[in-house]
Amino acid sequence: MTEYVTVSAKIPRELRERARELGISPSEVIKRALEEEVKRREVEELTKRLKEAERLGVDVKRIVERALEEEIRRAKMERFKRLVEEAFESMDVSVDEWVRAVKESRMER
User: What is the C-alpha to C-alpha distance for residues 1 and 80, in angstroms, rounded to an integer?
Assistant: First the structure.
């Protein structure tokens, strides 16, 4: 569960009244603006770190490509495992029985 804290900001009374007339929630606007600024600064910081790593000779692009390839392989394998499990459930056969049948068919070849 997310823990919340109170953050306050002083704004001109006229601005608060205009916002109220327009149905604007200062709390929501402040949250959204702060979230956007935090994301912007995180991207900025990450960009600086990546540039520094590249300056030091690290092939960042290749590292990212490898990580993506591994994640895609993992996701495909998980999907394949689910499909196999679903197939076994619908065939009313156990994995051991299926393995035995495959081995027998290979021996017959």
Answer: 34
The position carrying tokens 């994995």 is 95
For the chain, 109 residues long, give each residue's pLDDT as a single digit of tens. Answer: 889 999 889 999 999 999 999 999 999 999 999 999 999 999 999 999 999 999 999 999 999 999 999 999 999 999 998 888 888 778 777 778 888 888 888 888 7
Contact between residue 74 and residue 81 where contact means Cβ atoms under 8 Å apart: no
Output b/e per residue, 77-108; b: 16+ Cβ within 10 A. eeeeeeeeeeeeeeeeeeeeeeeeeeeeeeee
Under 8 Å CB-to-CB from 34, ≥6 apart: which residues?
7
Which of these, 54, 62, 5, lies nearest to 34 by C-alpha position?
Answer: 5
